[in-house]
Amino acid sequence: MLKTKTYSNGLRLIVDKMENYESVSFNMFVKTGSVNEDDSNRGISHFIEHMLFKGTTTRSSLDISKQLDAIGANVNAYTDKEETVYYTKTTADNAEKCVEILSDMLFNSTFDAKEMSREKNVVIEEIKMYDDDAPSKVELLANQAFYDSTPFKFDVAGTISSVKKIKQSQMFDYKNRFYVPSNIVLSFAGNITFEDAEKLVEKYYIPNFKQAGKQVNNKFENSRKIKFVKSFKDNAQSQVCISFDGTSFGDKDVYASKIFDIAFGLGMSSILFQTIREKLGLVYNISSSTISNCAGGDMSIRFATSTKNVPQALLAVAEEIKNVTSAGISEEQFENAKTNLISSIKLSFENTSFVSLFNAKRLAFLNQTLTKQNYVEAVQKVTLQDVKNYIVSRFRSDNYTVSLVGDNTKIKLEKYFKI
């Protein structure tokens, strides 16, 4: 049973009581990320996420880890473009301890200078690690090009230079501005009642907030363009990412996009996999996926191949895009993809971690809830024509970006990819 509550200070609580589960998953969802930074503090959202685990007024970093390990809790966090999320999963009898520790991290983190200096080195090593990883590098290159008129073009982690410059005072200023109740959703899923979750929130969160703050409601306009960008990396393969418009949060086409992704580029029976790998033997893997965000999102096609194969692979992908734009997908492909998606939804909702995050994100960005049954019904309502309309609206000849990371940046991408 799904139930929500909005407190007078703007804090939102959502609880999904799931029968016959031992676990309770808890998300402290903060609606801020790298798009809310500027040139003076790039990477600060991600760095704060790291530093919240580095000690409070009553706990050291080791204390936090030991106390969570002692109860067998799974705990982690992530930062993205528009959100920073701290999450735990444990048994019902230990849920309160998780809530108490995360609230302590939220309200009492010290951002100790020595810890900051040490953690900056950790983040810098993280940046270097992803820079060495070709798939991650092409993703960053693609984002920089496709979202060039919005803050989505910046890396969540910042740069080595920007991380080194982050000051303690900036940390507190940013946290005081964005880590406010009107910008936070607390989400529980699993073996917990709404009443019990409410008691925990009113014990550990409500009394500790000093101000309501202002809720973040970003919206960015992404410019239309055709771009071909390349970056040198001496790898055995070239990484390629082709980006088109995706979907915004709450977009009417979001369900059609999920069905199309499955038919076109997810799984071994998908159009791209069958053509580019199975028929032509040009890649080990190729996929397409759609991301939703407040700048219109992106639909991307990604593959890796030997540099000599890049021209043929680009020509083949372009041809498949032309074919699917002209003819759409078949009735069989549509029905199979729809069934695949519905099965995936049902299986995902068996995981309390998924449910907790799904509910938090939807409430944070749309101020709406969506049950598993309503989700399935929404997918079932999508028609083949809806998917065809989606395909035509996204595969536009005036708006795409082709990005390549590899050892030959002289390849004329524009020569081989035209739609």
Strand content: 15-25%
H-E string: EEEHHEEHHHHHEHEEHHEEHHHHHEH
The biggest sheet, with number of strands, parallel, antiparallel or mixed sense and barrel status, is:
6 strands, mixed
The helix fraction, in percent, is 40-55%
Number of helices: 16
What is the 3D shape? Answer: globular
Mean pLDDT: 96
| Quaternary organisation | single chain
The rounded distance between the terminal residues' Cα atoms is 47 Å
Radius of gyration: 23 Å
Helical/strand content category: alpha+beta
Spatially, the strands of the biggest sheet line up as 1-2-6-3-5-4
**Weakly predicted, low-confidence segments:** none
How many beta-strand segments? 11
Topology (elements, then pairings):
Elements: E1 2-6, E2 12-17, E3 23-30, H1 44-51, H2 61-70, E4 74-79, E5 84-91, H3 95-108, H4 113-132, H5 134-146, H6 160-165, H7 168-178, E6 184-190, H8 194-204, E7 226-232, E8 237-245, H9 254-265, H10 271-279, E9 286-291, E10 298-306, H11 310-327, H12 331-348, H13 352-366, H14 372-380, H15 384-394, E11 400-406, H16 413-416
Parallel strand pairs: 2-6, 7-11
Antiparallel strand pairs: 1-2, 3-5, 3-6, 4-5, 8-10, 8-11, 9-10
Helix pairs in contact: 9-12, 9-15, 10-11, 12-14
How does this model look, in words?
By secondary structure, the protein is α+β, with helices and mostly antiparallel strands. It is 45% helix and 19% strand. The chain has 16 helices and 11 strands. The protein has helices at 44-51, 61-70, 95-108, 113-132, 134-146, 160-165, 168-178, 194-204, 254-265, 271-279, 310-327, 331-348, 352-366, 372-380, 384-394, 413-416; strands spanning 2-6, 12-17, 23-30, 74-79, 84-91, 184-190, 226-232, 237-245, 286-291, 298-306, 400-406. The strands form 2 sheets. The protein has a 6-stranded mixed sheet, with helices on both faces. A 5-stranded mixed sheet has the order 7-11-8-10-9. Helix 10 packs antiparallel against helix 11. The longest helix is centred in the first third of the chain and has 20 residues, at 113-132. The chain is globular and about 60 Å long.
